[in-house]
Amino acid sequence: MAATPKSSWGWVKAMLHSIYDQPDANAVHAQFDRVVDALTAKLPAVAEHLEQARTDILAFTSFPKELWRQIWSNNPAERLNREIRRRTDVVGIFPDRTALVRLVGAVLAEQHDEWIEGRRYLSLDVLARSRMTFLDATTTDHESEAMTPPALTA
Questions:
Q1: What is the pLDDT of residue 132?
Q2: What is this structure's pTM?
């Protein structure tokens, strides 16, 4: 949106969201092409910016469909940032840098423990399947067995 004029944010944002609403990887890439084509006439700088970022924007399509929402969403990071902000606002002014690092470190450790012991944002079986999709189709069965990850336990 940094390359988009404020007056165009609404419709450009709607067009970008249409990319993520597609049912499969081929449809996502086709919709991306249509969005870039539509933007080329009215906002060439935005279209060029998107074209340069194509690989990064569409990277999620190489993973299984079940992971797409988790990959393109930054909700967990935003939630963690809000929790850090909430806790630091309570303190107000820190006496020194080490006090700030200690508080933020405690929040991060708490989040880490919650993800280790409790709910998982990405399940281990889906991650293992996504790893297997990256195997080269030309590997032999013996090579494939050597590259198979060990059994993952929850």
A1: 66
A2: 0.57
